[in-house]
């Protein structure tokens, strides 16, 4: 594998994107970042992680839109900026890693060896996964799926000029329902190995 490679995972709720990203990172021997980014930021800056978590991947509650290079003193944008800077610092140090969400495919767009991936799925398969993992009814699972995807879309589109889920934004868009989570992990592992070989 190359000296540096960064894999970003955007995902629909219920698609298994978090688990896929975490397992892929483990197979590749790379650090994995998701919600744990805030733990590290809080420890480094002496902040309350529970307060940061309230605004994690949350769109600003105003109509004004900003790009990732913009500035605002709203708590949503302040927390987002902390995470964007955390990722940029890692990248500028030459570190390789896998990260889920956090507009990473845009924040790190200038990194040469970036592999942005979008994970989606069939609604019935996603619902079944949510019901099993969260113990929800079908009605609750459907509501949760719509709510989380709406938040993710609004968050992403608020900070980024590209659209969440737009195939042109990513190297690869994968339906995890087609192969299942485990086979999707294997497929992405092979894809990343081939992509990094071609980057050399």
Task: Give the count of helical stretches.
Answer: 9
Label the overall shape: globular
Order of strands in the sheet with most strands: 2-3-1-4-5
CATH architecture: 3-Layer(aba) Sandwich
CATH class: Alpha Beta
Straight-line N-to-C gap: 9 Å
What CATH calls the topology is: Rossmann fold
Name the poorly predicted regions.
Answer: none
- Mean pLDDT across all residues, rounded? 91
Q: At the fourth CATH level, what is the homologous superfamily?
A: P-loop containing nucleotide triphosphate hydrolases
Give me the secondary-structure category.
alpha/beta
SS elements, strand count? 5
Order of helices and strands: EHEHHHEHEHHEHH
User: How many structural domains does the protein architecture include?
Assistant: 1
Beta-strand proportion = 5-15%
